[in-house]
Amino acid sequence: MAAPGLTVYVAERGGEVVGTLSVQVMPNLGYEGRPSAFLEAMVVDAACRRRGVGRRLVERALGDLRAAGCRKVQLLSHKRHADDGAHAFYRDLGFTADERSENLRRSFEVARILNDSGLICVCAFVAPYDAVREKARQVVGEERFLSVYLSAPVEVCRERDRTGAWELADAGRIAQFPGVSAAFEEPRHVDLELPTHRLGVGESVEQILALLRERGFIE
Length: 219
Prior knowledge:
Blueprint: E1 6-13, E2 16-31, E3 34-44, H1 53-67, E4 72-75, H2 97-116, H3 130-140, E5 148-151, H4 154-160, H5 165-170, E6 192-195, H6 201-214
Parallel strand pairs: 3-4, 5-6
Antiparallel strand pairs: 1-2, 2-3
Helix pairs in contact: 2-3
């Protein structure tokens, strides 16, 4: 599903990406003869949320949209970090295998609904089992689904952890944690694998965009 009106805004701090915001312009959903726009999937690093990163991302996007003549802008979705622990959609779920699967199932259904409305959904999950990944492909639809595997050694994942989750898992305070106290099945079928311990953020993003262009999702 081509989306030529898609723009991704990126905020950096010290050479690191600390925030992103996706903006989709929809000329076919115009308002008073002008295009509409949707702000979606804003993600800001937890340590930077009080530093105005999200506000500046929105300000940049709104300035560009105003210059483009958009009259109606809607905040479609805001992805919150799992460590917030306050999102009502997942509040009743824990870390068991069944609860992780239910967490992913709910997310897949939301992604399908948004995709049905003409939007591209970029979803990042810890999906440790092949059966769950294949279920996601079936829910969204084979022709509209791309699987990208961010592969890295467990040691690298530990070094990157900023939430303390790995330390809690090692101490036994988080049960059934993939890579520590639960299994992680290597994906058998992926559309793209990114060894993030060898690739930088920019190169990884370029490979994802190239895949989207190759499959006809964007121009």
